[in-house]
Amino acid sequence: MFSSHQSLRRRTPAQGIERPEYIAHLVDEYYTTTNVEAQEQAEALDVFTASLESANPHLKLHGIAALCNICLEKSAVKFIREHLKLITDLFVRTDHPEIVLHSLTLFYQLLESEDLDRELLLVPAVLKTVQEWRQKSDDLRIVQLCQLLLVDFASRSEIIELQNAPTALPALEQPSTSRAAAGTTD
Question: Which domains does the chain have, with CATH numbers?
Answer without folding.
Answer: 19-166 (1.25.10)
